[in-house]
Model the fold of this input.
Amino acid sequence: MIRITFTLVFLIVFSCKEEKEKIISLKNESNKKEVKTWQDDFGLTHSIDLDSIWKKPVRYYITNKNCDSTAVKFYLGVYKPKDEAETERLLNLVITENDSLRPFYRWILDKTILIQDGALAEYTGVPARKYAEKFPKEFFEYMDYDKSGGKYSNWSNSIGYSGFYDSENVEKPERIKHNLIKIMTVNCKNCDEEYKKKITKLANDCFSANDFKSKK
Done:
């Protein structure tokens, strides 16, 4: 019994030490870099206990053993999204089935949409649309949390600019709108009429025939 108790205590202490060393290592890596002005509008302190994402401290996400290393580097300012495959991979993590980490990856996509320009804008629309399609209720909860409407505008513009990944219908905004509505409705379990109206509005805001060509 004593041996079992000792083993348990040892494992707990070792786990805590390992977590602490990981955090120290990440902080040291961040401190070696110059101040990242691209994060100035993110409202970060880079204290994993003070900063929070979707009502949880950042520590909750980055100490998760399954948390993507590039995602952690994004938070620390060590990795800035750019025109490369790694950015594409990072942003597509937003559709993970991991409920614990998805809010963190969604935050990364949201902040990338905030700073996007030029080539980077080509990378955000597809994962934004896939997220809205796969998790419609979660998507609208996230949008509605921002009462200013700025987040909704940013995301719908991003989807409209580069989210038409249905190449067969790229010249047919009405068909693309129909497909978006269809997929979101199928995945919106037990949705009432209010949700259906939101889905239709999103499709119209993203793929209006009037400005569709200008977004391409």
Observations:
- The two ends are 69 Å apart (CA to CA).
- The first helix runs from residue 2 to 31.
